[in-house]
Amino acid sequence: MPELKTPVAEMVKQARARIEEIETPDAIAMLNDPGVVIVDIRDVRERQRSGFIPGSFHCPRGMLEFWVDPQSPYYKDVFGQDKTFVFHCASGWRSALSVATLQDMGFKAAHLKEGFSTWEKHGGPVEFPEARDD
């Protein structure tokens, strides 16, 4: 197996050094702030299995740059709001890389440092999707 030039752990470390990280208790305190949008970039199966932050906006990681860019045919209006955006994944790795990329694009955002993994432990509310009758 070839050795990678930059392992993902190093990429996350570099991203974290230049982005805004929000601790879980601080994010919980922001939950009811109408000026804050919490964006969940986890896979839909993760949300079904583990639940999600009430009121969070789901944006799959693979569509993030396309949904944020107003020039993209996939642009979502939610990202055009003058609000504080806090992105999260399960452990903070994907969201750190995502926010660094968004910052490179000129989009201001922060991320939940430890991800959803510590949300419930800190008393954060969790919702689950309704069961589907397929």
Mean pLDDT: 96
Q: Helical stretch count?
A: 5
- Name the helicity range: 25-40%
Q: Roughly how many Å is the radius of gyration? A: 15 Å
Q: How are helices and strands ordered from N to C?
A: HEHEHEHEHE
Describe the protein's architecture and organization.
Helix content is 31%, strand content 13%. It is globular. The protein is of the alpha/beta class. A five-stranded parallel sheet has the order 1-5-4-2-3.
Layout: helices, strands, pairs:
Blueprint: H1 8-16, E1 20-22, H2 24-30, E2 36-40, H3 44-50, E3 57-58, H4 64-68, E4 84-88, H5 93-105, E5 110-112
Parallel strand pairs: 1-5, 2-3, 2-4, 4-5
Helix pairs in contact: 1-5
